[in-house]
Amino acid sequence: MTDSMAQIDQQELVEQLLKEIHLVATKLQPRVASSQPVTLDSQLDRDLGFDSLGRVELIAHLERSFSVHLPDRTFSDAETARDLLRGLMTARHASPLDLQRIELIHSDNAETPAEARTLLEVLDWHAARHPGFNHIRLLSDEHQDVIISYGQLQQRAQQAAAGLQSNGLMPGDTVALMLPTGEDYFYSFFAVLYAGAVPVPIYPPVRLNQLEDHMRRQVAILDNARCRFLVTVKEAKPLAWLLKSQIDCLKELLTLDELAASKGAYSRPQLNPDDTAFVQYTSGSTGNPKGVVLSHFNLLSNIRVDGSSIDVTADDVFVSWLPLYHDMGLIGAWLGSLYFSVPLIIMSPLTFLARPVRWLQALHRFGGTLSAAPNFAYELCLNRIDDDDLNGLDLSSWRIAMNGAEAVSPDTIRSFSKRFAPYGFRAESMFPVYGLAECSVGLAFPSLNQKPRIDRVRREVFSLSGRAEPALPNEGSVLRFVGCGHALSGHQIRIVDSSSQELPERHQGRLQFRGPSATSGYYRNPQATGKLFDGDWLETGDLAYQADGELYLTGRSKDVIIRGGRNIYPHELEQAVGEIEGIRTGRVAVFAVLDEARQTEKLVVLAETRESDADVRSSLVQRIAESTAELTMIAADDIVLAPPGSVLKTSSGKIRRAACSELYQQGRIGEVAHSPWLQLARLQLSALPKQLQRLIVDLVKTAYALYAQLVFRVLAVWVALGVLLLPGKTIRWGLLRFSARLFAGLTATGLQVTGRENLPPVIQNCIYVVNHASYIDVYAIIAALPRRFRFVAKAELSQKWLPRNFLSRIGTLFVERFDRAAGIDALRTMEKAALDGDSLLFFPEGTFTHAPGLRPFRMGAFVAAVDSGLPVVPVAIRGSRSILPGNSWFAHRGDISVTIGEAIDPPALRAETDSDWDLALKVKELAREQILRHCGEPDMGHEQAFPPKST
Fold first, then answer.
1. Least confident window among 356-365, 567-576, 907-916
2. Could you tell me where the DSSP H helices lie in 295-437?
């Protein structure tokens, strides 16, 4: 018994314990607590109604009341009040926050395994260069940390791999890992890889006495993955017969100790980049499991570009509590740290949930610079950490606080930054990100050193049309969305409508992506794989829009409810209802169910509450109804107040709306307060005009696209004939400019030109450099610039008769991009043309891509400018990508702005030490800065960290 407990008589301790349990139970479940006396043998869940979070609240309350720290295993193993008594008897006295700093030794090797093609080659690279360097530090509640070096990880993993091979494992077999965060997990994961097999991480049971129920839920995953072995904890071994009887492929349940004890010899398999590295099963119901297949190529592509985007070096320190069965913890935290030689400080998720301050404490003690967590973790730090626990805390080293894996709350990120600013946390460190297992975790990151962007849009417009129209500063009825940056280098995203036509900026639609990190599909699930792909694009299942190159997530497509012509976003309503006093925060589910009699959808709000008084519950229903009507302009059809534990969640804490809907339809949730039939009929009748309005909007969009194509084709024939037949370049250019402006007028495309005063005098020629985002850039620039010029185009366009003759007739110069000698000749031709009195126009990006962003500039235009001494005029086009995206001929109504920048005079910039090449580089950077300032797209000037996979 500890000193603090020794001062209390055991009988007094029992009485005080039962009193404290009753106090917390009354807050959580008033009806249960009042009807059920608390005894030492009371079951925490069955008798007293403590769910997982309720148990955390209970034990945290006991620690405060008795001034002790209970062992972490108490959170998972305690089932009765008697178990809690045993925990108190062995608990240690609560000590002040341990802020003793620990200096880590960082690798002095700035290199990374850039040539590695598989995860095994990554580990081999590190083990060969610094085998004794500490890679992982597992934090222990008793401060007996476990440290794993690169050499140790390789050696013990190969030893266990030999055990797998001696048990009959064949290359390509799948092996399930059901292990908690600990050293066994790290060794086992690489053991499977070293054996040439495929790891399948699945989440371990929360409490060991629930192993059988938990493993029954895992049968569908194990069967779908066709796992031959399951590596798990020794407590699960007796249940092998249960799984073997249901899964014919499962051969054995093994522990790491059993594998390591094998005397078999290890045989190294041959792995290729396209081989599967592991299968990541997504959270949710296991009735139809979806295992994301990720190759070594996918993972290394993502890890490299992720690290490049946030400037990861060996001087960083990653602090994590994320579970290793989750992709964010496995790939983002561990495998990313492994690749970049970053020390990984890791604790169990239970340690964080029990005392969130330990996460911040670890960041302080080890000088953590990187960490990641879902939004709820930052919210937990706000609500569960007392100010007294923060004395002396220093978070100034924390430069990247990734927030992802679930909806990011603008209130949370602002409150967290404000609360922890006095402790050194910078608002710019909050880093909302977007990713998914199907893209090897990372897909979109914001720019470094910028505060999170929060977009305020008009609620009414967005709900009706999906258009994210910016709200005025003082406007009240708004929606707020957090920006998640732009697509990572080498990856592309797009927003499409229901017919897969790309949408312009600030229009909500389905978010799709493609890139080298993209999965090839779901393991042994062709039906789900077929739904995943739309051509070579992959569906994320999320709704989003883009604004100025920034990605804004608005919700899951399957969760959005359409009522009365409006889009209702469950997460927003859930958050608002959860803020009502008496409703459990984070325990609200909003979903739609089909009214089979009327074949319409009903809007249902399910909320957990601890209140039992009839008047209080009636008041809560009224307040929820008012909040629903205020946010959605539509009444809820049903509001259900349910006891704690009624709202189902996934293992990662996300609301399982579909599962809640199923329980609701089965009549298994609380009392249902049905809406009057007359009100329902009136609501459905009022919805018809709005639904018709949405249909008309879609038809108008399609009609406009067809009309724009027709106008383009008619004008194209007219212009082509005119250019080919009319004499003189002046007449031909007059026809071009008139046709371009006519096209803009006939298609109602606004064209705004600013900066004409920046053009050089009429008698002086120049070199124009223009960003390239769409096919219609050529028409926009012809209509916008008042003077004639000569396009500089790629030589491939001269290989066909019509393009060659058309472009030649308007004075185009053709440049060979791939033949060095021909390219030099073309450069001399351009310089001569410039000196002879012709202005030249370059698209220095070379071509445009589907993804938004200003790409790196080629040097031809700037070398020609330096050699000829002509000024360079930067021109920025904005809006063309939204009107006609790359790889699409489906035009959207929109406006284009053309900004003519200040002319750059190369001779005036030359310094005494500048070579012609240095001067050309200087001119290029100045021109690019001006274009970047006005084009409205992110800077994608850095080189791709990992080349895309060839197809």
1. 567-576
2. 296-309, 327, 336-339, 349-354, 357-366, 375-384, 410-420
> 533-534 and 673-674: which strand pairing?
unpaired
Residue 244 corresponds to which amino acid?
K
* 23 and 155 part of one domain: no
State whether 146 and 257 are in the same domain: yes
If asked whether residues 549 and 603 sit together in one domain, one would say no
The rounded Cα 193 to chain-centroid distance in angstroms is 27
Instruction: Assess whether pLDDT exceeds 70 at residue 209.
Output: no
Does an H or E element contain 513, and which?
strand 509-514
Task: Give per-residue pLDDT as tens, 797-811.
Answer: 878 888 888 888 888
* CA dihedral over 520, 522, 527, 533, signed as positive or negative: negative
- Residue 660 sits in the same domain as residue 755: no
Query: Is residue 629, in this structure, part of any structural domain at all?
Result: yes
53 Cβ partners below 8 Å, 6+ apart?
none
Is residue 436 situated within a structural domain? no
Tokens of 733: 């250019």
In 3D space, the residue among 387, 385, 415 whose CA is nearest the CA of residue 403 turns out to be 415
Let me know: does 140 contact 71? Beta carbons within 8 Å: no
d(CA 583, CA 560): 23
Last residue of a domain, one of 499, 524, 556: 556
324 half-sphere exposure, CB direction, 13 A CA radius? 26
d(CA 49, CA 643): 9
Residue 864 in tokens: 């020609």
pLDDT at residue 35, as a whole number: 54
- CA separation for the pair 278, 154 (Å, rounded): 18
- Cα separation, 526 vs 424, in Å, equals 50
Q: Is the domain of 575 the same as that of 529?
A: no
Question: Which band of pLDDT confidence, cut at 50, 70 and 90, is reported for residue 592?
Answer: confident
Cα separation, 664 vs 765, in Å, equals: 74
* CA distances (Å), origin 566, targets 348, 560, 590, 743: 43, 10, 15, 35
Q: Which domain holds residue 798?
A: 750-935
Beta bridge mates, 230: 176, 253
Question: What are the beta bridge partners of residue 768?
Answer: 841, 873
- 272 plus 392 within the same structural domain: yes
Task: Examine the domain organization and report whether 538 and 566 are in the same domain.
Answer: no
Based on the structure, what is the number of domains in the chain? 5
* Distance separating alpha carbons of residues 764 and 79, to the nearest angstrom: 86
Residues 489 and 576 in one domain: no
> 478 in a domain, yes or no?
yes
Measured distance CA(314)–CA(334) in Å, rounded: 14
Amino acid 206: pLDDT: 61
CB atoms within 10 A of CB 292: 22
* Beta pairing class for 291-295 and 276-281: antiparallel
Q: What is the CATH number of the domain that holds 385?
A: 3.40.50.12780
**Secondary structure (H, E, C), 673-699:** EECCHHHHHHHHHHHHHHHHHHHHHHH
Final residue before a domain boundary, out of 502, 535, 556: 556
The reply to whether 709 falls in a domain is no
Burial zone of 225 (CB within 10 Å; 0-12 exposed, 13-18 middle, 19+ buried): buried
Q: Inter-axis angle of helices 81-90 and 52-66, to 10 degrees? A: 40
**SS3 per-residue string spanning 309-350:** HCCCCCCCCEEECCCCCCHHHHHHHHHHHHHCCCCEEECCHH
Task: Note the pTM of the prediction, 2 decimals.
Answer: 0.77
Task: Give the model confidence (pLDDT) of 602-645 as tens digits.
Answer: 788 998 887 878 888 888 888 888 888 777 767 788 888 888 77
